[in-house]
Every structure is written in structure tokens, then in C-alpha cells.
TrEMBL record:
Residues 4-82 form the Tubulin-like CetZ C-terminal domain. The keyword GTP-binding applies. Keywords: GTP-binding, Nucleotide-binding. This is Tubulin-like CetZ C-terminal domain-containing protein. GO terms for molecular function: GTP binding.
Amino acid sequence: DEAISELSLNCNPKDANRALYLLAAPAKEMNMDLVKELGDYLRDLAPKAVIRNGDYPREKGVLDVTVILSELDKVEKVRDYYSTSTSLIPEIKQRQEEIKGKLREIEDASKDIPSLL
């Protein structure tokens, strides 16, 4: 639950088409039952995802689970980026025209200067 609650992006795990979980823990505490339980839990959260897993035995006495969700169908933050970028297109075009105009002015101002080449 903690790994899911700390996702860096607000999203619904049910929208994930791929998922990966990495279990890092002391080798003595890792077993297939724990790996299966984590996989089943993630399968409930992301039922349509292709789920991969990995383990990283280590000496430190802490059990960590890292979850990565990818190929998300619906992400509000990404949708907001598209909406914002669409609304900025006219402003960007205006800036480009202003730059072209300034470049033309510079070119016109320099046309009477002899070339050094």
C-alpha cells in the first residue's frame, strides 16, 4: 500500500498496461510466498497490466517495494500538458513572427555594409 500511495504521479493503477515491482530485502526474509502475494496484490490493483517482478537481496534489514506503472491509459497531468500546449500555439506563432520581423530589420540595416569576404 505504501509503494502505491507514494507514486510520483496521481494515476489509477487500473489504467496501467504494464507494471513492475522490485522487492529489496534481506535474503532470509525473501521467499516465493511473499513474491506471489505482492504479485497477486498488484494484479488486483492493475488487472490488465503485464506484470514483471524482480528481487534484490541485500544485507540491510529493511524490506522495500518499488512499483513502476507504465503505458497508462488516462493521466490527468499529461492531458493538462496537451491542453496547455494547445492554448499556447497562437502565442508561439506570434513570437515567431516577431522574431522573423526583427531578423528582417537587421538584414535590411546591414545590406549597405560591404562584405569582408
